[in-house]
Amino acid sequence: MAVLDEVLIEEKDRLLRMQSRMQSEYNELPQGCLSKKMIHGSCCYYLQHREGDKVVSKYVNAADVDDLSKKIDRRRSLKKSLREIDSQLKKIQKVVK
Length: 97
Prior knowledge:
The radius of gyration is 20 Å and the shape is elongated. By secondary structure, it is α+β, with helices and mostly antiparallel strands. It contains two helices and three strands; from the N terminus they run H-E-E-E-H.
């Protein structure tokens, strides 16, 4: 049983390191979503996110939309991965005490 415990502890450490790296990257990426609005016949893009009860919109240049969209998708992907890591860590915590 000691070998299994060692493997689980190593896996826990690996997951914690991954979680730390992912969390720091997640915090650096922009939060919210892109919205596209037609204003006077031209497309305008806005990054929208919540601050408390308010929705805050920030104008985004059309040249920056693709890059920002990729960053937002990366943030969503990281959020999903972080949830999975949390789930795995909880399972390991139950077995290793």
